[in-house]
Amino acid sequence: MSLKLHNSLTRKKEEFVPLEDNKVRMYTCGPTVYVYATIGNLRAYVFSDILRRALMYLGYDVTQVMNVTDVGHLTSDEDVGEDKLELAAQREGRTAWDIARFYEDAFFRDAEKMNIPRADIVCRATEHVDAMINLVRRLVENGYAYETGQAIYFHVPCFTDYSKLSGQSLEDKITAVRAEVQEDPEKKNPADFALWFKAVGRFENHAMQWDSPWGRGFPGWHVECSAMSMKYLGDTLDIHTGGIDHIPVHHTNEIAQSEAATGKQFVRYWVHNNFLKVDGGKMSKSLGNVYTLSDVEERGIKPLAFRYFCLSAVYRATLNFTWDSVAAAQTTVNSLYAFVREAKRSGATGPSPEWTREYADRFRESLEDDLNTPRALAAMWDLIRESNRRQDFSVLAVLYDFDRVLGLDLDRVPVEEELAEDYAALVAERQKARETKDWARADEIRKQLAEAGILLEDRPGGVVWRRAEG
Ligand code: AMP
Ligand code: ZN
Fold first, then answer.
1. Model-level pTM greater than 0.85?
2. Which of 131, 206, 309, 365 could pair with 329 in a Cys bridge, judged by C-beta atoms 3.0 to 4.6 Å apart?
3. Can you give the pLDDT at residue 181?
């Protein structure tokens, strides 16, 4: 095993060595459940899934923890604004609790469609408030945090290494934060961030609130991840994932809180995915291009084709989503499935021939090189090309092995090609028409399908279909 990962902390590609033997403790910043996940969010979770699967493929024993942020994430990461959950509750006329469960379910449904299995431990912030209060209490006791009338803050200048992940100097950070409206005059330093919000002032009617040593209130978003990750994985994690947008604030604050509390290194490898853009720009409501998986499906693109699309770029590069490029991914997946179907039909199920080893090695080496999925896919396609050239189709075992990482459901490709749903509905309608002796309608449907290149043949056992040649 010689996996290399780019560590945002050192800004270098490094050999990955877990803290203990081959055990990997991995934490993934989970979704904030107040809207449907965007295709950008889904790219982040395809990435953490590929990382987890690749680690397992390479022989590591992985424990992945993912949180669900169902309270405390404000509209600005800098303690300004409202809680996203509460705003959604007002918008939709439901309780914040309903909102949280509804969008959490929607998230996991999307994840399942994209073959992203649940983390070993999925933890909701609202169910771990005690652990958060304990962490905040430790920080108050050891002098890193202080109380005001509105909140408990982490005092950033106390923590000398505050900028180590972002590389942004504290002065620049303060300038950046000053641009935001300061809502608490008692805050000692503009860079200080809230660990706990009191249910007073703008948060007096915050629906989700708990008792604490500082009166009723609710936890800040950053402290949620520190408390839950350390509860389940210990003081030092091997890997922490998230999108690059989390580097300057969320993950920087996680490090400060965790390391100030334990005095130990919090995370050994920070691994961040780059953004998915749409038509070369940021997704935005005003452009109407904040797409969800349902939007993608409505255009006839399967979730696994979108997954393939995500794998077609390295995770550290931006990925540009256009309807053309994702349609091209669907075509590519169709050809992949067509090959698998052929291989299944050929009945060549024996052990993988020796000539495939070179491709399997390339596949593994590509993953070991900072999860280079486009190169891993290229190795797979070269294998397929070679298989066609040799007319030796006994490569399914190799492809299924690759699919442990790719997650494209290759073993579930049906031997017979399935008819698209709308065509299948027409075939069924024609069958009914024949039963009621409505020959005119039956003929009309036959013609309509023929125009679409689908030829029907009535046999004693029922109707069969095939594609017209060319
Ligand atoms: P959130 O639910 O806002 O906390 O975001 C969930 C995850 O999606 C985080 O890891 C973000 O960094 C990531 N993310 C948000 N937008 C994008 C995007 N356009 N492309 C890739 N990752 C994203
Ligand atoms: Zn987080």
1. yes
2. 309
3. 63
AA letter at 22? N
CA distance 39 to 329: 15
Beta strands of 4-96 (E only): which ranges? Answer: 4-7, 12-15, 23-28, 61-68
| Residues 310-321: tens digit of each pLDDT | 999 999 999 999
Look at residues 334, 271, 330 and name the one whose alpha carbon lies nearest to residue 306.
Answer: 330
Q: What string of DSSP letters covers 82-141?
A: -BHHHHHHHHHTS-HHHHHHHHHHHHHHHHHHTT-PPPSEEEEGGG-HHHHHHHHHHHHH
Q: pLDDT category, 40, cuts 50, 70, 90?
A: very high
The answer to whether the beta carbons of residues 39 and 276 sit under 8 Å apart is yes
**pLDDT 10s digits, 123-155:** 999 999 999 999 999 999 999 999 999 999 999
Query: Cα(41) to centroid of ligand 1, in Å?
Result: 4
The response to whether residue 245 sits with its C-beta less than 6 Å from ligand 1 reads: yes
- The two beta strands, 267-273 and 237-243, are parallel
Pocket test for ligand 1, best of 41, 51, 107 (most atoms within 8 A of CB): 41
Does the pLDDT value for residue 96 go beyond 70?
A: yes
Name the least confident of 161-165, 274-278, 372-376, 428-432. 428-432
Query: Quick one: CA torsion of 242, 224, 125, 108, rounded to 10 degrees?
Result: 0
Residues near ion ligand 2 (Cβ under 5 Å): 29, 225
Instruction: Delimit the domains of the chain by residue range.
Output: 4-273, 278-412, 421-467
Q: Which fold has domain 4-273?
A: Rossmann fold (3.40.50)
Pick the residue with more confidence: 323 or 451?
Answer: 323
Q: How many CA atoms lie within 13 A of 257 on its CB side?
A: 32
Local structure of 259: helix, strand or coil: helix
Across 186-194, average pLDDT:
94
In ligand 1, the atom with minimum distance to the C-alpha of 283 is 19
Task: Give the pairing of strands 145-147 and 151-154.
Answer: antiparallel
Query: Cα–Cα–Cα angle for 334, 57, 320, nearest 5°?
Result: 45
Residue 313 in contact with ligand 1 by CB distance below 6 A: no
Cα of 45 from ligand 1 centre, angstroms: 9
d(CA 408, CA 41): 19
Query: Which residues are within 8 A (CB) of 383 and not within 5 positions of it... i.e. 6 or more apart?
Result: 356, 359, 360, 395, 398, 399
Give the sign of the dihedral formed by CA 120, CA 245, CA 186, CA 90.
Answer: negative
pLDDT computed for residue 467 by the predictor: 75
